[in-house]
Amino acid sequence: MSSTLKSLRALADPTRLRIIALLEKDELSVNELQEITRMGQSRISTHLGLLQDARLLQSRRDGKRTFYRLNQEADAVARDFIQLAVRGARETHEHAADELNLKRVLARRNEQAQVYFNQIAGRFDRVYGPGRSWQAFGHLLLRVLPPLVVADLGSGEGLLSELLARRCKKVIAVDNSEKIVAFGAAKAKKNGLKNLEFRLGDLENPPVDVQSVDLVILSQALHHASVPATAILSAFKMLRGGGQIMILDLLQHNFDKARELYGDRWLGFAESDLHRWLEDAGFKKIEVSVVAREEQSPHFQTILAGGVK
Ligand SMILES: C[S@@+](CC[C@H](N)C(=O)[O-])C[C@H]1O[C@@H](n2cnc3c(N)ncnc32)[C@H](O)[C@@H]1O
Question: Is the Cβ atom of 156 under 6 angstroms away from ligand 1?
């Protein structure tokens, strides 16, 4: 049967005109159509099937539900049929009730989302949100980084370096463990990150040229330095004017076992110590703050310290 005949047949029923008129206003599920039109599911489904067969409608699955809407790719003839159907629906005696019921169903749909967000307002940042994570935020923030040259000191195998290398001009990852450097370099190669270079060296005297980088990162690395102030001074030297240092470390704690469990030399740092070392090295615009606290004992807290050369 030609598509014109199919469309004419599909429109030869007032119920189907009503359905088209409703779907012209919004996408609706079978349940919602049932509620609006007060018809049984199988009747609605039959009508929807016919309309879809005539290419006047489209559907999409969303979990267990199927949503219907007018065919967005309908040709000019089909669009004319749809307009006629909408006009015809207005002449049915159910039209006024359909409009009212549609309004109610759509209002409830919006309310459901609002009720949820109203309930959690004030706690939103702390409750679970599907798909929301610091990892995801991290990726988002990395996308807005300018093309910097970065030195990641005490880089480990390059968890952060690899992420940075996807956006930055160059990343130099320095670590004093031969094994870690070999592993990190092999992984960077495997991942095709040609702008990520691993270098073996000490973070107190790193193998990085003076005034050659825009950003120095010390992520959970400074507490391994024998003299942290020396590492910060070295960072200052390797930065270009206007470059920044970013230190992520632990706030001073009493968890002695960190020495034996994680090889830590320092049990975190006081905010004032970091501030002083940054100032003594010559950094300006210094900011030091606690940015995270772990839920589990011993409740390590993360400190973020930064400054500009
Ligand atoms: C806790 S890990 C942090 C790794 C990474 N920055 C991160 O945030 O995931 C500390 C790293 O610093 C390295 N390290 C320890 N002392 C160092 C030193 N004096 N110079 C350079 N790297 C050092 C270790 O080999 C280890 O890979």
Answer: yes
